[in-house]
Specification:
By secondary structure, the protein is of the alpha/beta class. The chain is built from four helices and five strands; from the N terminus they run ββαβαβαβα. A five-stranded mixed beta sheet has the order 1-2-3-4-5. Helix 3 links the parallel strand 4 and strand 5. It is globular, with a radius of gyration of 15 Å. The termini are far apart.
C-alpha cells in the first residue's frame, strides 16, 4: 500500500492529519516532515486521525511521541482518533494511550474539546 498524508483544517487552529497506509521506518520520515510543515502554521489542536493506518512500527510510534512533545512545548493540544484495533493494542502494550490522548472517534474528541473550552471560559452555555 502506498503511503499518503491528507491534511484538513475545518476550524481555525484545529488541523487534522490523516495518514493513509503503514507508518514504518520509511514512511515515518515522510510523516515527520509533513507534521513539521503543519507546526509552522498557527495550530492550537492537532488531530492525528489513524483510521487509514493498518500497521505501525517503533519508528512510527517514536514520531508520534515526538509530535506530542513538540506540540506540548508550543502549548498546543494533541489527540489521536480512530485507531484500528491492532494499532491501539501497540499503544496499550507500551502504555502510551493515556499520555497520547487517544479517542475512539471524532465525536468523543469533540466532546472532550467542548469540555476543555467550557472549563476555560467558565461558561456553562458554551456553544458547541
Amino acid at each position: 500500500m502506498e503511503f499518503e498524508i491528507k491534511i484538513d483544517q475545518t476550524t481555525t487552529g484545529i488541523i487534522t492529519v490523516l495518514p493513509v497506509g503503514p507508518i514504518n521506518t520509511e514512511t515515518s520520515i515522510t510523516l515527520d516532515k509533513e507534521i513539521d510543515k503543519v507546526l509552522a502554521k498557527s495550530v492550537k489542536v492537532l488531530v492525528l486521525d489513524m483510521e487509514e493506518v493498518d500497521f505501525i512500527t517503533s519508528a512510527g510510534v517514536g514520531i508520534i511521541v515526538k509530535i506530542k512533545t513538540s506540540l506540548k512545548q508550543k502549548g498546543c493540544e494533541f489527540a489521536m482518533v480512530n485507531l484500528q484495533p491492532q494499532i491501539k493494542k501497540v499503544f496499550e502494550i507500551i502504555r502510551l494511550t493515556s499520555i497520547l490522548d487517544v479517542f475512539a472517534s471524532r465525536k468523543e474528541l469533540d466532546e472532550y474539546l467542548y469540555r476543555v473550552q467550557r472549563n476555560i471560559t467558565g461558561n456553562e452555555d458554551f456553544e458547541r
